[in-house]
Amino acid sequence: MTAKIIDGKARAAKIRETVKSAVAALKATHGFEPGLAVVLVGEDPASQVYVSSKVRQTEECGMRSIEHRLPADTPEAELLALVRSLNEDPSIDGILVQMPLPAHIDSDAVVLAIDPAKDVDGLHPENAGRIVLGKSGLVPCTPQGCVILTKDALGDDLSGMNAVVLGRSILVGKPVALLLQNENCTVTMAHSRTRDIPALCRQADILVAAVGRPEMVRGDWVKPGAAVIDVGINRVAAPEKGEGKTKLVGDVAYMEAAEVAGAITPVPGGVGPMTIACLLANTVRAACRIREIEEPAL
Ligand SMILES: NC(=O)C1=CN([C@@H]2O[C@H](COP(=O)(O)OP(=O)(O)OC[C@H]3O[C@@H](n4cnc5c(N)ncnc54)[C@H](OP(=O)(O)O)[C@@H]3O)[C@@H](O)[C@H]2O)C=CC1
Ligand SMILES: Nc1nc(=O)c2c([nH]1)NC[C@@H]1CN(c3ccc(C(=O)N[C@@H](CCC(=O)O)C(=O)O)cc3)C=[N+]21
């Protein structure tokens, strides 16, 4: 079997078109443009790339984008003060603080300081709690993207399917597992202490890999016909491209898994672009909820 490739890049472009139309309609009927603030502390090169694409895509959708780049040694108090000023700023509807933060900053304290109504990353305990309760809040972007791509592959009704989620981080693994449970999947969460992960994975109709281990999931871990959602973004050496060259690989050994799976997301071009598209959609949702106006279907 050769898997259908789930084109996250194309799906993300479609979401951005919908967001763009929704933003134009809000401007015409309510006279405002949603605004997103992205905060980056330090000079991590990968983070700089993501932040630049977030800014560009926000503007392409007709929204306002504000970027704050702070030096790596910024005191926690200063970052907290910035977050509070963004909370108060009526031109800002969404706040994203890029993770990870430098070690001297307590990231829990920073997330807690974000107004939950503007928490477009869905990381504030209030939004995290809403997912646990199965209530609608602001849903974290990468997990939202994973569910959309899964439904594209398997159809809207995921009831009764076995899902295995590798990884239990606050940003990805845990919320993905909860969202799939809210879709009536039977969900198993695996992590670094889980026994016999390959056998567990072979039970999965939906296999989500979010561990940050390059190509950890092998072809013989995949149930024939399964949907494989590869969240991992790992930069590894690529000597075949020349000395000192690198490439991006996922947490799944793509070529092997694609021989067995029914559908699979590539890296790059899978979950990554969906994350940013969902961030833009969340910013529009936040802007509408803050103003108590009807939300467009996104
Ligand atoms: N596409 C996108 O938009 C995004 C991609 N990413 C990528 O997704 C990956 C995961 O990110 P993130 O969740 O933030 O990572 P974290 O490092 O925060 O979490 C990794 C999780 O994987 C588990 N884990 C690590 N090694 C193993 C192993 N050998 N066997 C089983 N479980 C293991 C850890 O277990 P334990 O809890 O026991 O330590 C942990 O729960 C990374 O490659 C990251 O770059 C992240 C965010 C967005
Ligand atoms: N508060 C917070 N929220 C996040 O959502 C968050 C974060 N911090 N920290 C870092 C991770 C990582 N992340 C990605 C976003 C887009 C791509 C993406 O667009 N990737 C492209 C290619 C990227 C490239 O070529 O380098 C792709 O997979 O096709 C990847 C990864 C969001 N994260």
Automatic annotation (TrEMBL):
InterPro entries assigned to the protein according to its UniProt record, in alphabetical order: Aminoacid_DH-like_N_sf, NAD(P)-bd_dom_sf, THF_DH/CycHdrlase, THF_DH/CycHdrlase_cat_dom, THF_DH/CycHdrlase_CS, THF_DH/CycHdrlase_NAD-bd_dom
PROSITE patterns hit by this protein: THF_DHG_CYH_1, THF_DHG_CYH_2
Domain of life: Bacteria
Gene Ontology MF terms: methenyltetrahydrofolate cyclohydrolase activity; methylenetetrahydrofolate dehydrogenase (NADP+) activity
CDD domains tied to this protein: NAD_bind_m-THF_DH_Cyclohyd
Pathway note: One-carbon metabolism; tetrahydrofolate interconversion
Binding, NADP(+): G167, R168, S169, I233
Function: Catalyzes the oxidation of 5,10-methylenetetrahydrofolate to 5,10-methenyltetrahydrofolate and then the hydrolysis of 5,10-methenyltetrahydrofolate to 10-formyltetrahydrofolate.
Annotated ranges, domain Tetrahydrofolate dehydrogenase/cyclohydrolase catalytic: 6-121
The protein, known as: Bifunctional protein FolD
UniProt keyword terms in alphabetical order: Amino-acid biosynthesis, Histidine biosynthesis, Hydrolase, Methionine biosynthesis, Multifunctional enzyme, NADP, One-carbon metabolism, Oxidoreductase, Purine biosynthesis
Organism: Stappia sediminis
Coiled-coil region: none
One Pfam family linked to the record: THF_DHG_CYH
Tetrahydrofolate dehydrogenase/cyclohydrolase NAD(P)-binding domain boundaries: 140-289
Record keyword NADP present: yes
Assigned GO CC terms: cytosol
Subunit and interaction comment: Homodimer.
